[in-house]
Amino acid sequence: MLASQSSLHASDRELSRFHFRVVLAAVAVLAALSLLGARFYYLQVLQHDYYSTRAEDNRISVVPIVPNRGVIVDRAGIVLARNYSAFTLEITPSNVEDLEATIDGLSKVLDIESKDKRRFRKLLEEGKSFESLPIRTRLTEEEVARFAANRYLFPGVEVKARLFRQYPQGSVASHAIGYINRINKRDLEKIAESEQAANYKGTDHIGKTGLEHHYEFALHGETGYEQVEIDAGGRAIRSLSRTPPVQGNHLTLTLDIKLQEIAEKAFGDRRGALVAIEPSTGGILALVSSPTFDPNLFIDGIRTEDWDVLNKSRDRPMLNRALNGTYPPGSTYKPFMALAALETGRRTAGQTISDPGYFNFGGHHFRDDKVGGHGTVDMYKSIVQSCDTYYYQLATDMGIDAIAGFMGQLGFGQRTGVDIDGESEGVLPSPEWKKRRFRRPEQQKWYAGETVSIGIGQGYNSYTPIQLAQATATVANKGVMYRPHLVKYITDSRSGEKTMIEPEPLRRLPWKPKHVETIKNAMVGVNTHGTGARAFAGAGYTSGGKTGTAQVYSLKGSTYKESAVKKELRDHALFIAFAPAEEPKIALAVIVENGGFGAQSAAPIARMVIDYYLLGKLPKGVAEEDDVKED
Amino acid sequence: MQEFLARLWRGLVAHVDTPLLLITLMLMAAGLPTVYSATYDANSHLLPQMLNMAIGLCAMWAVAQLPPQKLMRFGVPLYLVGVVLLILVFFFGIKVNGARRWLSLGFTRIQPAELLKIAVPLMLAWYFHKHEAVLKFRHYIVASLLLLVPFALIAKQPDLGTAILVGAAGFYVIFFAGLSWRVIVGLVAVAGAAAPFVWTMLHDYQRKRILTLIDPTTDPLGSGYHIIQSTIAIGSGGKLGKGWLEGTQTHLEFIPERHTDFILAVFSEERGLLGNSILLLLYLLLIGRGLLIAGKASTLFGRVLAGSVTLSFFTYVFVNMGMVSGILPVVGVPLPFMSYGGTALVTLSVGIGMLMSINTHRMLVRP
Questions:
Q1: Is residue A175 a contact partner of residue A325, using CB atoms and an 8 Å limit?
Q2: How far apart are CA B177 and CA B170, in angstroms?
Q3: Per mean pLDDT, which range of A325-334, A553-562, B98-107, B114-123 is the poorest?
Q4: Which of A16, A82, B85, B345, by CA, is between 20 and 30 Å from B153?
Q5: Beta pairing partners, A586
Q6: A52 Cβ neighbours under 8 A, 6+ residues apart
């Protein structure tokens, strides 16, 4: 009983001090609770009339006024996303006695589809019975008049003007622009996390993908509000005060929508991606993912049928291949490998190898495309003719760590930080990566044989088209690397002030100018008398390029014959390019899924895009009066 | 047989303090219909709240059976577990609405800060009790540090409401253990001087809430909304209230969080000043009984723990009622035994249980 003994030792002085404090606490509590009592008396007796007026007779309601969402235009000012006002028919469920009868009655006056009813019920289930909910959107003038004539039959039903988002270019650039759709639970969390909940009262749409998503808070604007007196029936009697909303900010893109459209058309119905970048700024000129989709389908809640078509298609139109497709770069990797060799001192430009048509590594023959080999090959010829043996040997000599180190600097296997969220990382193969990627120890080990095919862009190499375009632009720009971005500047809707997305160099790679020149020269050689020569014959400007073919399907020693392989298993065709060679204004990467050889299907797309961008030349079959709609 | 039953009954009620139990039951009786009124048009929370109350009462009874010497032994382990969990929350907690308060256990989520509401006073009371004979100034310093660690971790989450409750509970222990007035006055002076710096350290939303309190109309869509609507609810209730289930503010969904932190708005609207006065009286009786138990407690541990637990109840009541009636900023503090929510009910019941234990085991430890 140690506790009790020590308590007996507590001196009287201490005990009385404690008791004094207890009494003091009691007095403080009494005072504080009296304060609360007084507050209740003040509110419930003295101010009762005022508050009961506010609560019952005329309830003052604060009605948010949704701001106009910012507009998105391309670099020439052509509108890509805008708003228009349309009439909607809306029901406030709490003010309607028999909802079913009302809806039945309304469908006798106006066309109400089952889709409309479904959406209405969904909104109702979300428990918004005190808000006014749309049952029909986009009423025509005639429909508005017809309802107005019958209005007395439908208390609690009103015609309201609401703003809708519209993408006038339709499916063009839909992967870059993205779309808006109804706010869901996850969006609400994001809004709350950004302390934006008050600003989103009344807003029911939010950017879901692309720029609409990334720049959501810039585009949204500031919600205004109106204090209105409402009668017992919930009808607004008069406005007491009004704070107008502030329109969202406008985005001006680096994207050239006409270039984009030409690039998309060049793909036809083939799957693939293209990213074109301005090397001196990192501004994206075109960002294609083929096939595309029409973002207008999503605005009003997408129909189940449309969603099924988009979602179940084997071509996966909703996938943004430019950012989320990862592909082995194939031979387009060779110029970067050659630059790595020069920079690390593993090769000089003049050093030659003799190519017998294969590379022998530990008894295994790595084959070259050309039977019998390319003969004596120096660096220039290795790029122009795309000699595999040269790169098998180079990769082996450099070792995987040196390759991964150099390619990492070029941005391979890392997110570029483009202003669209959810970009994929790709895979920059290295022993560390293998250790992270695999569980079993025997899988975690890096085998020297695996380095060989890394040299020709195969093996574990897997990059997004935007990474490939960024690397190409960096070489074209002599090692000054930019973060690719789509927005050129944001215009403040209130002040008109423009916030430039400054082209800050991401890093300056300290390459020897002589080395970069060697590589660029060889790439010009590709387009004048190498694998890209046919696609770029008679171009009227000098350009650099490199073809590539990425294996989808391992052939296990047999010869690849395009016609013998099913279409889904055919090789991916790749092409990277920049032009004009002297002072590049455009750098790009093209991938055509299952397109076969790069020279055949990818290079002509690059040619069309560059022709238009540099010369304003439209490809055959595209009329001058194009259906890019101007505003 | 009859004697056996009588003995069983005596054993069952031996450590129950009748006044405390009665007050608690009356508060619950006021709370249940209010929870029903606040939620019946959506999905009623009546049954889950009854279950919460049953669990709370069981916890209360169980804690009351433990003599203070046993309670004391929980101090250090509960405190350590609580602080470790808070550190885990800091690193691995789940972020909900911008605050990192929860820890995922795979099958369920827990909010460790709640544990500290009990662990901190237990720990500090144990600490002072241990050093009772030789209390020096440095013991108060150590106690303050013991309090500061969980307080800072909770405030950082951020969870201002819980941080205030934990901080207050710890401070009350130090206060009742005899912290000199000079230090208290000094602290108040320092706090006054530091206020401008604290202001710059507050989160944006916390600053907004304080500004909104001064003039709610500046932010009618955001945090001002809660205050405007709840004062309308209280004021329109009048002397006798609009009657049960008749509150228009409540049933037209003007009151946010109306079954949890803002339940007083519902109660005031439907029961008026009469209901509020009874409620205030019940809380006053609860606090008075608690302070009486503290005053009569036979050990230092019992005294400071009972004092701290009792004043914690007062803090809950004052902060919550002050917030709902618009004289204190909006912080997440429930109204004891009225607000919906199992965790708070159990924590509060354990507090009552501890008071009962201190009171009913008093005779046993006297020589």
A1: no
A2: 11
A3: A553-562
A4: B345
A5: A579
A6: B235, B236, B238
pLDDT score for B363: 59
Q: Parse chain B into domains and list their residue ranges.
A: 19-85+114-360
DSSP-assigned letter for residue A95: G
Q: Residues A174, A331, A382, A462: which is the catalytic one?
A: A331
Query: Taking the model in full, what pTM does it have?
Result: 0.62
d(Cα A144, Cα B95) in Å, to the nearest integer?
A: 47
The beta-carbon neighbor of A32 closest among B98, B276, B318 is: B318
- For A201, A508, B212, the CA distances from A482, given in Å and listed in that order, are 38, 9, 44
Question: Rounded to whole angstroms, how far apart are CA atoms B302 and A380?
Answer: 89
Cβ distance B141 to B184 under 8 Å?
Answer: no
Regions of chain A where pLDDT drops below 50: 1-7, 58, 232, 555-558, 623-631
Report d(CA B160, CA A450) in Å as an integer: 56
pLDDT of residue A237: 66
Contacts of A189 in chain B (CB under 8 A): 96-97
Block residue for tokens 């990425």: A550
CA–CA separation, A524 and A476 (whole Å): 11
The string of pLDDT tens digits covering residues A275-334 is 999 999 999 999 999 899 999 988 777 777 888 888 888 888 899 999 999 999 999 999
pLDDT confidence of residue A597 = 73
Determine the Cα–Cα distance for residues A494 and A206; give it in Å rounded to an integer: 21
| Residue B288 pLDDT class (50, 70, 90 cuts) | very high
Q: Give the model confidence (pLDDT) of A45-68 as tens digits.
A: 999 988 887 776 546 677 788 899
- In single-letter form, the type of residue at position B342 comes to G
**Are B221 and A193 a contacting pair at CB < 8 A?**
no
Pick the residue from chain A with its C-alpha nearest to B176: A18
- Residue A56, chain B, CB below 8 Å: the answer is yes
Q: Which of A109-113, A515-519, B45-49, B179-183 has the highest mean pLDDT?
A: A515-519
pLDDT tens per residue, range B301-320: 999 999 999 999 999 999 99
Average pLDDT of chain B, as a whole number: 88
What sections of A455-533 are H helices per DSSP? 465-476, 513-529
Total Cβ atoms within 10 A of residue B61 = 18
Neighbours of A117 (CB within 10 A): 14
CA distance A266 to chain B (A): 46
A174 among known catalytic residues: no
CA angle A474, A324, A570 (to 5 degrees): 95
Instruction: Give pLDDT, residue A23.
Output: 95
How far A9 CA sits from the closest chain B CA (Å)?
A: 8
Alpha-carbon gap, residue B265 to B231, rounded angstroms:
8
Taking only residues 225 to 244 of chain A, the set having a beta carbon closer than 8 angstroms to any beta carbon of chain B reads 225, 227
Give the type of residue at A443.
Q
Strand partners, A89: A136, A159
Q: Which residue has the tokens 């949890």?
A: B260
- What does the pLDDT read at residue A5? 47
**Contact present, A597 and A546 (Cβ < 8 Å):** no
| Cβ burial, residue A139 (10 Å; 0-12/13-18/19+) | buried
Chain B nearest C-alpha distance from A61 (Å) = 9
Contact list, B42 vs chain A (CB under 8 Å): 127
3-state secondary structure of A250: strand
Chain A contact set for B72 (CB, 8 A): 3
Q: Which residues contact A504 (CB under 8 A, 6 or more apart)?
A: A482, A483
